């Protein structure tokens, strides 16, 4: 296998798999408990980002705050999409029922992968993401469900940027639920309860 990720996989009892994508400085263990709590019974697949920023794992690097190398993003998303195909075979899950639970850089990576490799991820909960790439032309995401949760006072992702991302995803054909939380970039209990309700609706 060309693309490899250090990762954790937790089997589930439901035919749904959560792709847990950590934020900067996290690792493959960060969101395991959260994924289990927001979607009990789902399997969890959690990779570790492959870049290192002063000791902090990320899924792709940044040139400066809010600035990214689109060529690197294209390379990293290609690696992830290829690895997800391998993981679906290795662990026997349905790739059409693979939903991301991403935070910050992990959410950015999940969204970029959906845009560049439509169908690789079925949708998901994206917590505090920002626009990092805009393919031209935009792909057709065929109604992929996405919950995008932004922070009202987020110093890293301004509300305007979060709204722009939600608009772009909708233009690409995603079914976007946009939530503005009373928080900054950090996550709150409301993020997790909102994610849980969203996943319950998804399978309901």
Strands ordered across the widest β-sheet: 1-3-2-6-7-8-9
Would you state the CATH class? Answer: Alpha Beta
CATH topology: Rossmann fold
Sheet of most strands: 7 strands, mixed
> How many individual helices?
5
Cα-based radius of gyration, to the nearest Å: 15 Å
What string gives the helices and strands in order?
EEHEEEHEHEEHEH
% residues in beta strands: 15-25%
Tell me the CATH architecture. Answer: 3-Layer(aba) Sandwich
Describe the 3D structure:
With 204 residues, the chain is α/β, with parallel strands linked by helices. It has a single domain (7-203), classed as Alpha/Beta hydrolase fold, catalytic domain (Rossmann fold, 3-Layer(aba) Sandwich). The chain is 34% helix and 22% strand. It contains 5 helices and 9 strands; from the N terminus they run E-E-H-E-E-E-H-E-H-E-E-H-E-H. It has helices spanning 32-38, 70-91, 105-116, 159-171, 189-203, and strands at residues 7-10, 17-21, 43-47, 51-53, 56-58, 98-103, 123-127, 145-151, 175-181. Strands 1-3-2-6-7-8-9 form a 7-stranded mixed beta sheet, sandwiched between helices. Strands 4-5 form a two-stranded antiparallel ribbon. Helix 4 links the parallel strand 8 and strand 9. Helix 2 packs across helix 3. The mean pLDDT is 95.
